[in-house]
Amino acid sequence: MKLRNDLEYLHGLIELTEEQANERNLLEHSFSNLDKVLLIDADSLLFNVVNFHKDKETEEDLELQYEDFHTQVRSIANRIEDDGFNVEEIIYFFTTCKNNFRKEINPEYKANRPQDKTRFLVGLLKHYTIQMLEDEMSDVKYSDTLEADDLIAQATYFYDNAIIVSIDKDLKQLEGIHFDYYKLKTGEIDELGNELREYKGWTYTTKQKGFNLLLYMLLMGDKADNIKGVDGIGIKTAKKILDNRNNFGKLRTVIEKYNDINRLRNNIKLIKL
C-alpha cells in the first residue's frame, strides 16, 4: 500500500514539459467525445467482494457475491455518467494466465504473495463470474499468458474513447482517461446549499507522464510484484535523479544506475505495459 501511495504521489508531481504542450489537445479530444467504453480491471473488484463476504464459499454465496460484483460495476458506471459521460459499452478484463510470460523472465515474479484463503476464494469467484458474464453475452477478456493489465493496454489501441477503470498503479503508464473508483465523491455544499457533484479519481495520463512513471518504477522496483529496482533508491532519490532532465538524460541515468543492462531489459519487460 505504501508503494502504491508513493507512486500516486509521484504521478501527481510530474508536470507536462513544454515539448509536450501539444498533448493537451488529446485531453480536450477525449472529453469532446462523451460516448465512452469502460475498460474494467475486474480483478480488484473481485478482491473487494471477497473481502466483504469473508468465509463464504458455497454456490449460494457465489451467487450473492456475483450480484455484489454487478452492483459495484453499476455504481461505477453511474458515477461516470453522473459526471457527464455516456457509457456505451463495458468490457471486463481478468487475469487467469497459468503460463504468465513474466514468469519465464523471472520465476520469482509475484512469488512473495501469500497463497492464502482469500486468493483461493477470489479464484472461485473469478471462475464463476467469467462463466456468468459469458452466459449473459458480456464482453469478457482473459488470456493464458497475459494479465488483465496487458489486455487493457492492448484494448487502448482499438478504442480511442476508452476510460480505464482501475485502482492499479501500473495502468497509469497508459495514455488516456483513468477513473479510480476508490477516490470517492466530495460532499461539499455551495453557498446555496447545493451539493457539489465533483468526484475525485479522474486523471489523464499523457505519453510523457506514462514514460516518467515507468522510469520511476524501474528505479524503485515494485515490492508488490517482487521486482527489485536499484538498491538504495526510494521515492525521494528517484525524484532527485530524474528531475530536470530530458528523456534522453533520464534514460541514460537509469541505465547508469542499473549497471547491468540485462537486468534492466528484463525489468522493462516485467513492468512496461
Describe the fold and architecture:
The chain contains 11 helices and 10 strands. Helix 3 packs across helix 6 (117-135) and helix 4 (59-82) crosses helix 6 (117-135). It has helices spanning 2-13, 24-32, 42-52, 59-82, 101-105, 117-135, 148-155, 207-220, 235-242, 247-258, 261-271; strands spanning 35-41, 86-93, 139-141, 162-165, 176-179, 185-186, 198-199, 202-205, 221-222, 227-228. The protein is globular and about 55 Å long. By secondary structure, the protein is of the alpha/beta class. Strands 3-2-1-4-5-8 form a 6-stranded mixed sheet, with helices on both faces. The longest helix is centred in the N-terminal third of the chain and has 24 residues, at 59-82. 49% of the residues lie in helices and 14% in strands. It has a single domain, classed as Rossmann fold (3-Layer(aba) Sandwich), CATH 3.40.50.1010.
Summarize the structure.
With 273 residues, this protein is α/β, with parallel strands linked by helices. It has helices at 2-13, 24-32, 42-52, 59-82, 101-105, 117-135, 148-155, 207-220, 235-242, 247-258, 261-271; strands at residues 35-41, 86-93, 139-141, 162-165, 176-179, 185-186, 198-199, 202-205, 221-222, 227-228.
Keywords, separated by commas or semicolons:
14% strand; alpha/beta; 273 residues; six-stranded mixed sheet; Rossmann fold
CATH superfamily: 5'-nuclease
> Which regions are unreliable across 5 or more consecutive residues at pLDDT < 50?
9-23, 188-198
Rounded to an integer in angstroms, the radius of gyration calculated over CA atoms is 20 Å
What is the strand tally? 10
With strands numbered from the N-terminus, the spatial order across the biggest sheet is: 3-2-1-4-5-8
What name does CATH use for the topology?
Answer: Rossmann fold
Q: How far apart, in Å, are the first and last alpha carbons? A: 21 Å
The assembly state of the depicted protein chains is single chain
Main structural class: alpha/beta
Proportion in β-strands = 5-15%
Number of helices: 11
- Please trace the helix and strand order, writing H or E for each element: HHEHHEHHEHEEEEEHEEHHH
Approximate shape: globular
Q: How many discrete structural domains?
A: 1
Helix content: 40-55%
Average pLDDT value? 82
